[in-house]
Amino acid sequence: MAEPGPDTTAGSYTDRLSRLQTARWKQVLDVQAPYRWNLRRLLGDRRVLDVGCGIGRNLANLPAGSVGVDHNQHSVDHCRALGLTAYTVDEFLALEDAPTFDGMLAAHLVEHLPPAGAAPILRPYLRFLSPGARVVLICPQERGYASDATHTVFFDHARLRALAEELGLTVEAEQSFPFPRAAGKVFTYNEFVSVARVT
Q1: pTM
Q2: What is the pLDDT at residue 5?
Q3: Cα–Cα distance list, 134 to 3, 109, 130 (Å)
């Protein structure tokens, strides 16, 4: 398990995410292209609730009407500056007229939480999902997990499946993306992707 690292609610954490995302080589090579494609493939034209949206990397590529939620006010402000709809956790959960969503995304979120902390964090958002809504959970594999000092719990497909079941969701698909599972030990950006359904 990684040692506890920087506070993910701090402005410095938002700045770090922004620096990593806007690295020149990443822009030139458009390294996000396969991940954007995969999001579209998994979520289609559904209106999505992006829980743990960070600085909006995925939110910016989700269909119109999608909303981001994050516990970092600095990251929420960053999203809003980009013209995205985002709320802090407290703001969103206090909404009296929150919309219903056909999809929920939790990408690179649960590995930051304390042991046994993922289900309590995600459960309050389930009431905003329509029956049959698709829930996509994404976590880094070994090399990606080791790359961030704020990671606390390693989630593989088995652990993601257990989380989905704890939330009362039905798991429909699991994949290693963008490369086969073995690549996760050496390629930082290989991901576990689990797709579940609200029943």
Answers
A1: 0.88
A2: 46
A3: 33, 17, 9
